[in-house]
From TrEMBL, chain A:
This is Translation initiation factor eIF2B subunit delta. Residues 257-288 have a biased composition (Basic and acidic residues). It comes from Linum trigynum. Residues 1-97, 109-295 are annotated as: Disordered. Residues 72-82 have a biased composition (Pro residues). The lineage of its organism: Eukaryota, Viridiplantae, Streptophyta, Embryophyta, Tracheophyta.
Automatic annotation (TrEMBL), chain B:
Residues 155-177 are annotated as: Disordered. Its main location: cytoplasm. One of its GO terms (molecular function) is translation initiation factor activity. It is found in: Cytoplasm, Cytosol. This is Translation initiation factor eIF2B subunit beta. PANTHER family: TRANSLATION INITIATION FACTOR EIF-2B SUBUNIT BETA. Belongs to the eIF-2B alpha/beta/delta subunits family. The lineage of its organism: Eukaryota, Viridiplantae, Streptophyta, Embryophyta, Tracheophyta. Keywords: Cytoplasm, Initiation factor, Protein biosynthesis. InterPro entries: eIF2B_beta_subunit, IF-2B-related, IF_2B-like_C, NagB/RpiA_transferase-like. Component of the translation initiation factor 2B (eIF2B) complex which is a heterodecamer of two sets of five different subunits: alpha, beta, gamma, delta and epsilon. Subunits alpha, beta and delta comprise a regulatory subcomplex and subunits epsilon and gamma comprise a catalytic subcomplex. Within the complex, the hexameric regulatory complex resides at the center, with the two heterodimeric catalytic subcomplexes bound on opposite sides. Residues 164-175 have a biased composition (Basic and acidic residues). It comes from Linum trigynum.
Length: 658, 421
């Protein structure tokens, strides 16, 4: 554990976008003999060092190499059952290896027990991967295991069934001399790129050249260093293309573009990793600019809450009619997009998952009906189109972070489309990608979460839920179906009163329910044994961004020593960080605050709502600090909030290779 | 007497039906009722104070039973009892002093009936000592050194004090009876005055606590808070107020309306947004329903949440409380025992959920419960400061403050204790 901690301080995120070009064990594996030269890792390290941006400390490169190494191999050996699992596994590899003590690596010592500890601790954090630690141990038990370690693991990962994996790993380890495999491509730097190239190769070449130029600019970087990487890229691309026709092509192109290397692209990549600053609505010029582009006619709220000037504050209720009237004029807007946008605006679709699915399905429709205009390429044009749709959605209602993740995924998929695919193939590939995203990231993930979470429901429990989260509801219903005896306390709050609908559904299923409002939460908390909460997003500092009031409930539960369990799909995790609920939030219709439906006696504000001094603030979300969260149940298992950044890291790679 | 009984019954009815809202109104009406009770009570020749105490106690007991949650009733009953005791005591001491003077002059004139008079100074000295103790005057060092036998003697002497009084009132009995009652009624009037003006006294302190550009959060509605904020506003302080609406009664809307009418910049938020907003708040100022002797606060529901949030963000949590809200009792399980469940219709529309009400499990218990408590208990450690009409106090000081207003004998207003006495 200590070793691992020691290696942690440099944020791991950096490793994600960083791929040293010369690590290409994939080809070597398919090649019969050992690679042409066995440059020891030591000699290689300065080279990669000069390649690297200044921030990354040199010893890291070994681990990076190792981390990068298994990636191309993974598609090769076996068609794996669940690609995103495997991605996670690879990441883990990176994690494991990344925690190497550099001295150890250089001396080719066998991994110490700390590595095993590593694997195990990772495992405890993310319940899903059990094979890993196994293989880690295996590798460590072998004398030459140090460098072999990651390839073995990756293969082991790929072979899902636990029993099969070990023999394979062993055979592989014993079959090949480990250290040679380490840096197979390094000396091939002297080779020149071959003249005959496929389209993909050309693209890869271009990119790598660009990258090389960038690298030349960087201090200490040079073309000579960048050259091998080009070669490597091209080579790998070629090899993959010749070996596999259809399925892995996507992966290869991904890998290729990932590996474009060079300082600039790395920097870019890394910059992309850091979430882009959001639009700040107190920035006049930008707001003006956005307004000119916007489709939805929004009138700014007359009374804006001072504290939230940076958030969009528009008059509600006016846009809908306006948009409806514009229906025929909005030429470029796809009707499916239009429909979903209107539904967002009217509040017909709410809830993170529902919104995300609706959006993705609309995009699917768009893709199906799409035809590339002449003189344009599909990826660029489609991405631009989707961007415009996204901004339309944003105008209808600010996007949730989960939607942002889904959009990023989609754009990524489009960008990584192999140019050799025909238009119809690309389209169908995108459509299946969307389907897979919905299925795996939302539907299946929910099922896994329900499995995990309902294992925490015991007979005699009193569960407190807040608002209406569809996952939590599924957990409750599933537990009820399992004939567990428990009571549910539904806590609700204005103005949305989403709990009422949940209450109705639960009671209809025969669940014992108690309904109350959020102020009474400390009254009911005495009898509560567990608190189940949903989340709109979980940020990488462990903050849970959720329906406003969640933080209050979690806080009171914390004060009463009641465990708080957050149910959230991993696709909602976001690498953004947030400390309070002010900096980024969504403002609902302020008029909903002043009126209390169904309460005729509460009408104090009817006549004063136009006074200048009165502001009505309808916050939609709040940020629950990680201290209040006992556990987050996600599709990767049950994790503490501190493990969210780990999942985020794993998960971001998932995007690339789902 | 019958009209008093009618008044009492009417008030009891109101209390039972929860027609009187707010501890201030309740306190005031209770005090007024007790005043009329006292004024109409016929006092016997001897032990008038005892008779008055018994009468007030009997009625007070009924009132407390009628609405045990409204602690202000009990507070006022106890304070009136305390007033009676004090007035009686001061009259006695005054009389003793007079008698002392008169004995001195009597000695000069003649020594007839000296046996009686010789006793009195001794007894009344003991009564003075008791008075000194009862009013919690700090005992002098002299007394501490010598006074051990005195303290032993005190209870006996005070119990016998009534008799001696009775004996002493030979000639000016009528005038003294009237004097006692008159004094008590005067004091009760003062109490009523205090209750009505307490928020002014509290509001006077506002400038000391609110500075320019402050952001203040409050929950629900309280007249004291309103006056407090407005007093600061009148002193040309400009600040912003966040008002949490205080479901399910939404009194916050009312407060927001009042604040806006007085020109304060007000932002109304939902209760659920309290945690989100509290990080930008400089101070939480809330009213209370009652303040317990341990410094805990019985407050409108939701207050504990606000207090916890304030504690988390180290925001001062200031409770305004008039002295009639200071309750001499220590709470036990206050969330349940000092609470009251209101109608579920405030949360769920019966009509809307009528279809769900039919669902019942096999054992006949309904599937759907609705909990709508009225009050919250805020533990003393969550409170930064109490501002009462006597100034600002720590929660840990409340027991001492409360001792000024109540006498220890009245803490339990129960018949058997009254009989025992």
């Amino acid at each position: 554990m200590d070793a691992r901690r020691g290696s942690l301080p440099v944020p791991r995120v950096r490793q994600v976008g960083f791929f040293t070009p010369n690590a290409q064990p994939a080809p070597t594996r398919s090649q019969s003999g050992p690679p042409d030269s066995s440059s020891p890792p030591l000699s290689d390290s300065p080279a990669s060092n000069s390649l690297s941006p200044v921030m990354i400390p040199p010893p890291r490169h070994h681990s990076d190499n190792l981390a990068a190494a298994p990636r191309p191999t993974s598609p090769l050996p076996v068609p794996e059952p669940s690609p995103f699992r495997r991605r996670g596994a690879d990441n883990n590899n990176a994690l494991l290896v990344g925690s190497y003590n550099p001295a150890e690596t250089l001396l080719a010592m066998s991994p110490s027990s700390s590595h095993i500890g590593d694997g195990e601790s990772e495992e405890t954090m993310s319940g899903g991967w059990f094979r890993r630690s196994n293989s880690g141990k295996l590798a460590s038990s072998l004398p030459s295991g140090t460098f072999d370690f990651s390839p073995v693991q990756s293969t082991a990962e790929v072979l899902k069934p636990n029993k099969v994996q070990n023999p394979v790993g062993i055979s592989e380890v014993s079959a090949r001399p480990a250290p040679k495999e380490q840096q197979p491509e390094a000396p091939s730097s002297s080779k020149q790129p071959k003249p005959k190239l496929t389209k993909a190769e050309r693209r890869a070449l271009q990119e790598s050249q660009r990258a090389a130029k960038a690298a030349a600019k960087a201090p200490g970087g040079g073309k000579s260093v960048a050259a091998p990487e080009e070669v490597a890229t091209i080579k790998s691309v070629k090899q993959h293309q010749t070996q596999k026709k259809d399925a892995p092509q996507v992966a290869v192109s991904v890998a290729a573009s990932e590996r474009k290397g060079g300082d600039k692209s790395q920097d870019k990549e890394r910059r992309k990793d850091a979430p882009a600053p959001r639009m700040q609505f107190d920035d006049k010029s930008r707001v003006e600019k956005a307004k000119r582009r916007s489709v939805v006619d929004q009138t700014e709220a007359k009374k804006r809450v001072e504290l939230f000037r940076h958030l969009p504050q528009y008059e509600h209720g006016t846009q809908l009619a306006d948009l409806e009237s514009k229906f025929l004029q909005l030429d470029p807007m796809h009707p499916a997009i239009y429909k979903v946008g209107l539904q967002y605006l009217a509040g017909d679709i709410s809830g993170g998952n529902a919104r995300c699915i609706a959006m993705l399905q609309a995009f699917q429709q768009v893709v199906k009906d799409y035809s590339t205009p002449p003189e344009k390429t599909l990826p660029r044009d489609l991405t631009a189109k989707i961007s415009s749709y996204v901004s339309f959605f944003t105008q209808c209602r600010p996007l949730s972070m989960s939607m942002g993740n889904a959009i990023r995924f989609l754009k990524n998929r489009i960008a990584k489309l192999s140019p050799s695919l025909s238009e119809s193939e690309s389209k169908s590939s995108i459509c299946t990608d969307i389907d897979r995203f919905i299925n795996e990231k939302i539907v299946l993930a929910d099922r896994v979460i329900v499995q995990h979470a309902s294992s925490k429901v015991k007979d005699g429990d009193v569960l407190l839920v807040y608002g209406s989260s569809c996952v939590v509801e599924m957990v409750l219903l599933h537990s009820h179906e399992l004939a567990k005896q428990f009571r549910v306390i539904v806590v609700d709050s204005r103005p949305k009163l989403e709990g009422k609908a949940l209450l109705r559904r639960l009671v209809a299923k025969g669940v014992h329910c108690t309904y109350t409002h959020i102020n009474a939460v400390s009254y009911v908390m005495h009898e509560v044994t567990k608190v189940f909460l949903g989340a709109s997003s979980v940020l990488s500092n462990g903050t849970v961004y959720s329906r406003v009031g969640t933080a209050c409930v979690a806080m009171v539960a914390h004060a009463f020593r009641v465990p708080v369990i957050i149910c959230c799909e991993a696709y909602k995790f976001h690498e953004r960080v947030q400390l309070d609920s002010i900096c980024s939030n969504e403002l609902g219709d302020p008029d909903a605050i002043g009126k209390v439906p169904g309460r005729m006696d509460v009408n104090y504000l009817n006549d004063v709502s136009n006074s200048g001094n009165l502001q009505l603030l309808n916050l939609m979300y709040d940020a629950t600090p990680a201290d209040y969260v006992s556990m987050i149940v996600t599709d990767y298992g049950m994790i503490p909030p501190t493990s969210v950044p780990v999942i985020v890291r794993e998960y971001r790679r998932d995007h690339l290779l789902i | 007497m019958p009209d008093v009984q009618a008044l009492v019954n009417m008030f009891l009815n109101k209390l039972k039906k929860r027609k009187i809202e707010g501890s201030q109104a309740t306190a005031k009406q209770t005090a007024e009722l007790l005043r009329s009770v006292i004024s109409q009570q016929r006092v016997p020749r001897t032990n008038q104070a005892g008779a008055l105490i018994d009468a007030v106690r009997a009625i007070g007991e009924q009132l407390i039973v009628a609405n045990p949650i409204e602690l202000a009733v009990g507070n006022i009953v106890r304070r009136v009892l305390h007033i009676i005791r004090e007035e009686d005591l001061s009259l006695t001491t005054a009389a003793v002093a007079e008698l002392n003077l008169s004995t001195v002059s009597d000695d000069d004139d003649d020594d007839g009936g000296g046996g009686d008079q010789d006793d009195r100074p001794v007894l009344s000295a003991a009564a003075v000592a008791a008075a000194a103790r009862n009013t919690l005057r700090p005992p002098s060092l002299q007394m501490l050194l010598e006074g051990a036998p005195d303290f032993v003697a005190v209870p006996r002497s005070s119990s016998s004090g009534g008799d001696s009084e009775g004996k002493s009132k030979s000639m000016d009995r009528n005038s003294r009876t009237r004097k006692l009652k008159h004094d008590i009624i005067e004091a009760v009037n003062e109490l009523i005055q205090d209750i009505t003006t307490c928020h002014e006294l509290i509001a006077e302190q506002a400038v000391e606590h609110i500075h320019q550009n402050e952001v203040i959060l409050t929950l629900g509605s309280s007249k004291t808070v309103l006056e407090f904020l407005c007093a600061a506003k009148e002193k040309k302080r400009s600040f912003r107020v966040f008002v949490a609406e205080g479901a399910p009664r939404y009194q916050g809307h009312l407060l927001a309306k009042e604040l806006v009418a007085r020109g304060l910049q007000t932002t109304l938020i939902t209760d659920s947004a309290v945690f989100a907003m509290i990080s930008r708040v400089n101070m939480v100022i809330v009213g209370s329903h009652a303040v317990m002797a341990n410094g805990g606060v019985i407050a409108p529901v939701g207050m504990n949440m606000v207090a916890l949030a304030a504690q988390k963000h180290a925001v001062p949590f200031v409770v305004l409380a008039g002295s009639h809200k200071l309750c001499p009792l220590y709470p036990h399980n206050p969330e349940v025992l000092l609470n009251e469940l209101r109608s579920p219709s405030e949360l769920l529309d019966f009509g809307e959920f009528s279809d769900c009400l039919d669902f019942g499990s096999g054992d006949g218990s309904p599937l759907l419960h609705v909990v709508n408590p009225t009050f919250d208990y805020v533990p003393p450690k969550a409170v930064s400061l109490f501002i009462t009409d006597t100034g600002g106090h720590n929660p840990s000081y409340m027991y001492r403050l409360i001792a000024d207003y109540y006498s220890a004998d009245d803490l339990v207003v129960q018949r058997r204790h009254a009989a025992g006495n």
